[in-house]
Amino acid sequence: MPLNGLTKMTKIEVVVAGEHAPAVREQFQSAGATGFTSVSGVSGFGHHGYHQGRLLFNQQAALEMLITVVPEAKVEALTAGLRRLLEDSPGVMFVTDTYVSRPEYFS
């Protein structure tokens, strides 16, 4: 049900080492996501301790957060592919309901 004229979608955020970001982007595209946002140099504290956001030697040394929004019909395939990817590499995935004002951008 729309929220104040907005359309419900699903937002998927993935934080991985820069070297694994191309595989995440490939998963997004393979699942039919129409776009994504990538934020390089993210920092935070988690299971493997503190990660600074600055680059050490190259783009691959930093963490990257990739964000996409997809309609419900694309969520299962996308999250399944990302879960397989994250089995073999460190990283985290967040899946949340979100609402968008221009649903045609995401389908």
UniProtKB/TrEMBL annotation:
Superkingdom as given in the UniProt entry: Bacteria
GO biological process, one term: regulation of nitrogen utilization
PROSITE patterns attached to this UniProt entry: PII_GLNB_DOM
InterPro entries, A to Z: N-reg_PII, N-reg_PII-like_a/b, N-reg_PII/ATP_PRibTrfase_C
GO molecular function, one term: enzyme regulator activity
Name listed for the protein in its UniProt record: Transcriptional regulator
Species of provenance: Mycobacterium bohemicum
